[in-house]
C-alpha cells in the first residue's frame, strides 16, 4: 500500500500539519526529521531501511506494508514534563482503531499482539514523533511472533483515508499533550490493558513482579505502590 494523493492528505490535515511530504524509501523518517524537520512537518515513507525502535532496536518497515511516518512538534510550547509524550500517539491510534489497546507505555496491540511501534526523539526546540503501523502484511513478513497487522486482524483500510484519520487524531492528541489537557491521561487509562494486570518488569539493575495499580500523572507505571518511569524499564511483560 502507498500514498495515492498526497495533496488530498495535506489539505485534510492542514489544521495540524501544514507540511506533509512523502518519499518512496528512506533510512529513517525520524532521523530525517531530526536533521531537517521543522514544526508542523510530516514525512511519510513507503519503506524504511535503517530505522530504530526503543533501546536502539532495529526497526525495518517492508515496502508498502506499513504506515510509517514522523511528525515534528515545537517542544518549546510544552509547559512541563515530557513523560506523557509517549502516551499521546498510542491513544491517537486507538481513536482510529477501536479494536486496539495499549500495553504500557505505548505498545499498540490487538488481542495482545503488536500492530504499531512509536518512538520519539527530542532535539530542542523540536520533538519528533515517529510511528510505524502494520497495515498490510503477510504472516511471514511479521517481525516477531507477537506482532500482527490490521489486514491479518480483518481490518482493511483505504491507505489515504487511514493516513488522514491517524494524522488528525495525532494532531488532536498531541495538542492535548502540549496544553496539559487532563483528558489525555484519562482516555489513556481507559485503553491501557496493563492496568490491573500482574506483570514482571525488567529494570536496568534487576527485575520486579507485581500488579499494576495505575499509571500516574507523569506517565509512570505504578506497581504495588512504587512508580517506574519509561526510562527505568527495559521490558514489561504480563505474568498471567
UniProtKB/TrEMBL annotation:
One of its GO terms (molecular function) is biotin--[biotin carboxyl-carrier protein] ligase activity. Its EC number is 6.3.4.15. The keyword Nucleotide-binding does not apply. Residues 15-178 form the BPL/LPL catalytic domain. It comes from the Bacteria. Keywords: Ligase. Gene3D superfamilies: 2.30.30.100, Bira Bifunctional Protein, Domain 2. Coiled coil: none annotated. Pfam families: BPL_LplA_LipB. InterPro entries: aa-tRNA-synth_II/BPL/LPL, Biotin_CoA_COase_ligase, BPL_LPL_catalytic. It is an enzyme of class 6 (ligase). This is Biotin--[acetyl-CoA-carboxylase] ligase. It comes from Corynebacterium stercoris.
Amino acid at each position: 500500500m502507498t500514498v495515492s494523493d498526497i495533496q488530498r492528505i495535506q489539505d485534510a490535515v492542514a489544521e495540524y500539519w501544514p507540511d506533509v511530504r512523502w518519499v518512496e524509501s528512506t533510512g529513517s523518517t525520524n532521523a530525517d526529521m531530526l536533521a531537517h524537520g521543522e514544526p508542523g512537518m510530516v514525512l511519510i515513507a513507503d519503506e524504511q531501511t535503517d530505522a530504530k525502535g526503543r533501546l536502539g532496536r532495529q526497526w525495518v518497515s517492508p515496502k508498502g506494508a506499513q504506515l510509517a511516518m514522523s511528525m515534528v512538534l515545537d517542544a518549546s510550547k510544552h509547559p512541563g514534563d515530557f513523560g506523557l509524550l509517549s502516551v499521546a500517539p498510542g491513544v491517537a491510534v486507538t481513536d482510529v482503531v477501536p479494536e486496539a489497546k495499549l500495553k504500557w507505555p505505548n505498545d499498540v496491540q490487538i488481542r495482545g499482539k503488536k500492530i504499531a511501534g512509536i518512538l520519539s526523539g527530542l532535539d530542542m526546540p523540536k520533538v519528533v514523533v515517529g510511528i510505524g503501523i502494520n497495515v498490510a502484511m503477510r504472516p511471514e513478513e511479521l517481525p516477531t511472533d507477537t506482532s500482527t497487522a490490521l489486514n491479518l486482524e480483518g481490518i482493511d483500510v483505504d491507505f489515504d483515508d487511514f493516513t488522514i484519520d491517524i494524522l488528525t487524531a495525532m494532531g488532536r492528541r498531541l495538542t492535548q499533550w502540549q496544553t496539559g489537557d487532563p483528558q489525555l491521561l484519562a482516555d489513556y487509562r481507559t485503553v491501557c490493558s496493563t492496568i490491573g494486570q500482574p506483570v514482571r518488569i525488567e529494570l536496568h539493575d534487576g527485575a520486579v513482579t507485581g500488579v499494576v495499580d495505575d499509571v500516574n500523572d507523569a506517565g509512570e507505571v505504578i506497581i504495588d505502590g512504587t512508580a517506574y518511569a519509561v526510562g527505568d524499564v527495559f521490558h514489561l511483560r504480563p505474568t498471567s
